[in-house]
Structures are given as C-alpha cells and as structure tokens.
C-alpha cells in the first residue's frame, strides 16, 4: 500500500510543477509577444504619427536618426528618444477610449 501512496504523491508533485511552470512562464511569453508587436509598430512609424514616451508624454514624430526618433512635444520643443523608449502609440489607445465611453 505504501507504493500506491508514494506513486500518488509523485503524480501530485508533477502536476504541481506543471502548474507552477504555466503560472510563471506563460505571462512572460505573452509580454514578450506584446514587446515584439510594439517594436514592429515603432519600426513602421512615419512622420506625423503620435507616440507616447515615458512619463505619459504624447508627441508627434518629427524625424528619424539611427536608433532614435525625434519627437515634437510642443511648438518649438523636440526631444530625441531611443526607439526602445517608445511605450505606445496614440492610435492604439483611441479604440479603447471609444469602447470605454460606450459603457
């Protein structure tokens, strides 16, 4: 009878390890996919597109450099930020805002 109890305990631990793997690694995979999608959008930016940079600052793309984008945030204020610093696109937020207003 002890072997049956031990075998059941082994299955329990295998199930627990599988569950822990899913809980820990699946969100990381999902986040990586979102980051890749954002970088694809950043690489496809054009002049005049609106972007969000850290701190929630919204600006308009004014130009491009090697690994950086020139963002105009006011009439005579331009910032040069790395492409990796872009946290979002304003166009991505607009449909979400419309859905939230419909509730």
UniProtKB/TrEMBL annotation:
A cellular component term, taken from the record's GO annotations: plasma membrane
Alphabetized UniProt keyword annotations: Cell membrane, Membrane, Protein transport, Translocation, Transmembrane, Transmembrane helix, Transport
InterPro entries in the record: Preprotein_translocase_YajC
Bilayer topology: Single-pass membrane protein
Transmembrane segments: 6-26
Principal subcellular localisation of the protein: membrane
Any GO BP: protein transport
Top-rank taxon: Bacteria
Subcellular localization: Cell membrane
Family according to the record: Belongs to the YajC family.
PANTHER family, alphabetized: SEC TRANSLOCON ACCESSORY COMPLEX SUBUNIT YAJC (PTHR33909:SF1)
Protein name: Sec translocon accessory complex subunit YajC
Species of provenance: Candidatus Avelusimicrobium gallicola
Gene: yajC
């Amino acid at each position: 009878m002890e072997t049956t109890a031990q075998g059941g305990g082994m299955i329990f631990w295998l199930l627990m390890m599988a569950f822990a793997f899913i809980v820990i690694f699946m969100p990381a995979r999902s986040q990586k996919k979102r980051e890749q999608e954002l970088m694809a959008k950043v690489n496809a930016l054009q002049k005049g597109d609106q972007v969000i940079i850290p701190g929630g600052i919204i600006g308009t793309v004014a130009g491009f450099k090697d690994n950086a984008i020139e963002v105009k945030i006011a009439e005579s204020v331009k910032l040069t930020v790395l492409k990796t610093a872009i946290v979002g696109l304003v166009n991505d937020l607009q449909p979400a805002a419309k859905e939230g207003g419909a509730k």
